[in-house]
Design goal:
The structure is a single chain. The chain has 304 residues and is of the alpha+beta class. It has eleven helices and nine strands. The strands form three sheets. A five-stranded mixed sheet has the order 6-5-3-4-9, with helices on both faces. It has a two-stranded antiparallel ribbon with strand order 1-2. It has a two-stranded antiparallel ribbon with strand order 7-8. A hairpin with a 7-residue loop joins strand 1 and strand 2. The radius of gyration is 21 Å and the shape is globular. The relative contact order is 0.18.
């Protein structure tokens, strides 16, 4: 990990930086983006479970946050005690983890971004050849917090560690555990089974009753804290992957570019869409201390 030199900072400040935006960019984003109220409503419907026993929240079961990290939930003090031996290694309040996991939940409540995740997972698991509807599938989504305004970030003084700066979520990598080498805890399998049963029996899923369900672990690239979600992959995502139509990426400099459909292309679309959200309609932007954002940005890929 290296700190930028004062000379380097001065050189950056002397360079004229121009932010080029394609014509009609904001209007296109507004047309495609999920509405904030829809994202908030979708979050309310998300299942939350006890980190130890996987008991879901209900009218008779209340879940409380761990007072140490404010990230994991328990249905009782007994479950918290049982889980402590495995949780204690990661039980610490890190604003980067807190912000990342909040953003991960917002991303999973966003129907458009979730569709691109589904397509990427169809490709990663090769589900077109083997749908695997009754198989427990596991994938890891690595994320990173980045400056919302990169131009401002690289030219600002960064002298005040307490200064508030805007950051946004970016997806760095999607990794499918195709060989099932990753150990999956029993409570995650139980929640997978509950989700699979809901897909099979609930009317809202009648058109996707055979949808495979993927256990998703969202984690910052260099953190041991994770958030878990259970994602059914809909027929529409299979159809998109099957058609394999090139996706159109738009650049302010190069204009429109057609790129083949791939996992990396889906990640690019997700990140570009998040970066286009200047008014935080997607709830994937927020403020961080300058010191925390620097800590995130200064880690090199070799350290991840």
């Amino acid at each position: 990990m290296t700190e930028p030199s004062t000379e380097g900072d001065n050189i950056l400040k002397s360079i004229q930086l121009i932010h080029v935006v394609p014509e009609g960019h904001d209007e296109i984003f507004e047309q495609l983006a999920s509405k904030t109220k829809d994202i908030k409503n979708a979050k309310k419907d998300m299942s939350t479970t006890c980190w130890e026993c996987a008991k879901p929240k209900s009218e008779t079961v209340s879940l409380k946050l761990c007072s140490g990290c404010k990230l994991v939930l328990y249905c009782s003090s007994e479950c918290q005690r049982k889980n402590w031996s495995s949780h204690k290694a990661t039980c610490a309040i890190d604003p980067l983890d807190t912000k990342s996991q909040k953003f991960a939940k917002n991303l999973m409540a966003n129907d458009l971004l979730k569709q691109f995740l589904e397509v990427a997972l169809v490709l990663q698991f090769d589900l077109l050849s083997s749908p695997a509807s009754d198989k427990v599938l596991f994938a890891r989504i690595e994320t990173r917090l980045m400056p919302s305004d990169v131009l401002r970030y690289i030219t600002c003084d960064k002298k005040d560690p307490e200064e508030k700066v805007q950051a946004l979520l970016q997806v760095r990598r999607i990794t499918a555990d195709k060989e099932q080498t990753h150990p999956i805890r029993s409570q995650h399998v139980e929640e997978w089974q509950r989700t699979r049963e809901d897909v099979r029996t609930k009317k809202a899923w009648q058109d996707d009753a055979d949808a495979p369900v993927v256990i998703l672990e969202f984690s910052r690239c260099f953190s041991n804290n994770s958030a878990f979600f259970y994602l059914p992959i809909r027929k529409t995502s299979f159809q998109t992957a099957r058609e394999a139509k090139p996706l159109t990426l738009v650049s302010g400099i190069w204009g429109e570019t057609k790129v083949p459909l791939s996992t990396e292309c889906c990640i690019d679309v997700i990140n570009t869409h998040i970066g286009s959200d200047k008014r935080n309609m997607l709830l994937l932007r927020g403020s961080l201390r300058m010191a925390d954002l620097q800590r995130e940005c200064n880690v090199e890929d070799d350290d991840i």
